[in-house]
Amino acid sequence: MPNLPRTSDENRVVLLLDDNFYYSSMRYTYFLLAKRYGLSFLSVACRCPLSVCLSRNSHRSKSVPDHIIIQMEQKIEWPNPQINRWEKHTVMLDYSSLLTPSHLQMILESITVAMQEPFSYAEETTRLERSDADREINAQSLIHGLDAVLRSTVGQMMAANDSEWKAKHSGLMSRLKSVVMNKMRAKIMKDHPKQSPEEYKEQTVSLF
């Protein structure tokens, strides 16, 4: 991948984008740009109660209409590192009062940490491969568990009937078990899996 020219550690460059970026997609656009060049990405979000925002706005020489601020407060999608992994470097500041030197120090320290963790395609590839492997292991474990459930179900049905019934239906039970397992296997591999093991077990038994 192409890389921007890197300066020495003593002269690293910080590109500051000052905007509302009220939708996460707006921030994500710039994360992708940083990702493209193997650079670091950090968000600094200043949170402030709506009432304080409106009060401060009323004292500005060029104020913004109140309804614009209210709409912005309703629309804004705050950074969420728990959901968006790409926002793992995020500083959330309480801007109810003026920023202090400690706030600025927090930002500088976070920038330093982010700079030490630029985006790496090699690391991302490894992470994705590990995630895929983990999903495969979980899926196979779940499939094995469902197979055991069906074997138990078939065993109970066979035990509850006489030898004549067993001779007549044993082949059908085996084929039906294979059909159900194939359907559930396909569903699990497609889902990755999304439901709990108990929910999959209930579906398996109901199909059978």
TrEMBL record:
This is O-phosphoseryl-tRNA(Sec) kinase. Residues 189-208 are annotated as: Disordered. It comes from the Eukaryota. Residues 189-202 have a biased composition (Basic and acidic residues). One of its GO terms (molecular function) is kinase activity. It comes from Paragonimus westermani. Keywords: ATP-binding, Kinase, Nucleotide-binding, Transferase.
